[in-house]
């Protein structure tokens, strides 16, 4: 059955190709750092599930060391502006097709194979249908892009490396932060924060309890980088005992708006690397917090909106 | 109390601009050691959690395709397409993408977007193209970066405040599961309905900010 292990192997082919490309095109003295970094990432994705935990940990530490020392890749030769203008003129909006093929195949797979069965055979792990469809979409799109642009044989690996180098170590940051979140959870960091919020705020006043829950969700998410990690702990600490049981708040709006307050936190934290740091790398911005800066005003206003809506739905006299 | 040292390290490390991978690693060690785990055990914990998160790497498989399309001039085409539209401004282009992203996410189509697949090759070049109006020297690097950052922000805001309106999304399922553990049964639709007011507010607030952004860009040009 195609599941997470198979997905890891397919995903590992990309950094593996990038590592080989670095090893074959040694243009700077530091080529080995990039080659080693991407080879380690590939090894972790492909072989990780079969290696002992400590070996996987050592791979991660080696990648962190290489990234801290600096990868310093050589730039990859690509087309000139004039060449691009010419092909863009010739191909026109057909260039959008392979890019749109990725979400199209992802959607089709998710909608058509909800239980992962193809012709009655359990082919795909039902929990991974969307990710498997995404990987399939990426492969189909690559084939389309190669045919459409009549790319030379060397181009796919070179272009993959150009973008991979541009994003650089930020590519493994989401996985690192997920690991940190797991360790914070194992060390009970969450309970400490929930305890802090309950001791500081006068939770017997309805509005203060609403404030503590929403701000707690946002703050906790800023720390953990993930509203999903904050939600169970803040809801068990404040949402359920105070807002729902004590004040009789309607559970649906309390929980929904609590989660949305967490999303406001996600918009304001570098810990949510996938959303806030990866685009900085992907768009080659110089200020690491540029995306967060663009989001903070909206996030703060919406946090206020969430607090107001929740207060209105919890205060006595509102329809249940 | 010492388990919180990880958070302090994160805050200081990020503020000082130290490589985030290093900061995160040190923070993980600090909190885990404070919680009584041995150093070798911590290395194993990091390794296991990193491998468990490998599904996050699947999205990178789009890179070769995007690279090839950029090589063939996708960004240039996206930029040119917008410049042929009269009345297209950076703010309006981004407002259109915000609406599209929010609506599709609300229908559960969250994969229609993303920083690598959509923002870098298509949305950001369109937003830049609308600002430069055929004169690539019209934008200083600062302005170009701000436009790109705003394009990325629109993708996030549209996704976050759209997806919760869809009943089968992860966050709604988590809400249901947490409440159910505590003996409260809620219908997914009931929870999703309460995401609608915030979704509308998000569109109005961020949409207004995008139109104000247009004014700032105009003022900067003069």
pLDDT below 50 for ≥5 consecutive residues: which ranges of chain A?
A: none
Helix content of chain A: over 70%
How many extended strands of chain A? 2
DSSP strand tally of chain B: 0
Percent of sequence in beta strands of chain B: under 5%
CA-based shape of chain A: globular
Evaluate the radius of gyration of chain A. Answer: 24 Å
User: What is the total domain count of chain B?
Assistant: 2
Q: Strand sequence of the main sheet of chain A, in spatial order?
A: 1-2
User: Helix/strand-derived class of chain A?
Assistant: mainly alpha
Outline the biggest β-sheet of chain A.
2 strands, antiparallel
The oligomerization state is heterodimer
Overview of this structure, please?
The complex is a heterodimer of chains A (320) and B (222). Chain A is an all-alpha fold. Chain A folds into two domains: 4-168, no CATH class; 188-314, no CATH class. Chain A is 72% helix and 1% strand. Chain A has a two-stranded antiparallel sheet with strand order 1-2. The longest helix of chain A has 25 residues, at 290-314. Chain A starts with a helix and ends in a 6-residue tail after the last helix. The model of chain B has no long low-confidence stretch (mean pLDDT 87). Chain B has 222 residues and is mostly helical. Chain B has helices at residues 5-16, 20-34, 39-52, 63-71, 74-83, 90-106, 115-132, 141-163, 170-181, 188-193, 196-221. Chain B is globular. Chains A and B meet through α1, α3, α4, α5 and α6 of A and α1, α2, α3, α4 and α5 of B. Chain B: The chain crosses the membrane at residues 7-35, 55-74, 157-179, 191-212. Chain B: This is DUF969 domain-containing protein.
